[in-house]
Design goal:
There is one protein chain. This protein has 189 residues and is an alpha+beta fold. Helix content is 27%, strand content 23%. The longest helix has 51 residues. The chain starts with 11 loop residues before the first helix and ends in a 9-residue tail after the last strand.
């Protein structure tokens, strides 16, 4: 039936169609955002493993100690893992890139919402490729605050890496049996 002259507005069908489209777009955007964060966590895991393998390989190839540490100035190790990471030879064990030592890689982490932590001040590999100290764990905390997007890379004293997985089936990676990954500031942590 053609509209009467001067009649404006939407029919019930048009209104319901518009509401359905908005609902679908809202759900899709939320799901897409979550999917992006999940893939970001996977990418961080992959980059960390590559960085660790590179440092370990360089230590073996060069026959000297190689360090991975946080560094804001590209020269000295500091305590802020979530911003910049320096990989360098450290022949004299002073945690500082000296003129006679080689910078291997410098990584700037760009997303200020995310954090990266390591339960040590640095990760060092010997000329044999072993890590000094005990097992260590890198923990990536996502920018969206979802504990299901936490990623953890564990480094053994042999210099090998493994990814932490969800052992308990709750959707959150576990550091060990029954102990979920932890990010300070995330809900429920």
């Amino acid at each position: 039936m053609p509209p009467r002259c001067g009649q404006t507005g939407l029919t019930l069908i048009e209104l319901l169609t518009a509401i359905a489209v908005i609902a679908i777009l809202t759900v899709s955007a939320t799901t897409f955002g979550s999917l992006l964060e999940q893939h970001r966590a996977i990418a961080v895991e992959s980059h960390l493993k590559t960085l660790i393998y590179t440092a370990r390989s360089e230590a073996i190839m060069r026959g000297t100690r190689v360090v991975i540490c946080p560094s804001q100035d590209r020269q000295h190790c500091d305590a802020q893992w979530h911003r910049h990471i320096l990989v360098f030879t450290d022949r004299n064990h002073n945690r500082k890139l000296d003129a006679t030592e080689k910078s291997i890689r410098y990584v700037a982490l760009t997303n200020t919402q995310e954090t990266l932590t390591y339960n040590r001040t640095l990760l060092a590999f010997s000329a044999m490729g072993t890590a000094f100290g005990t097992n260590g764990t890198f923990t990536y905390c996502p920018g969206d605050g979802n504990p299901r997007h936490i990623a953890m890379v564990v480094v053994s004293v042999l210099g090998r890496t493994r990814l932490a997985r969800d052992i308990t089936g709750d959707g959150v990676v576990d550091k060990s049996q029954g102990k979920p990954g932890h990010c300070p500031g995330l809900p429920g942590h």
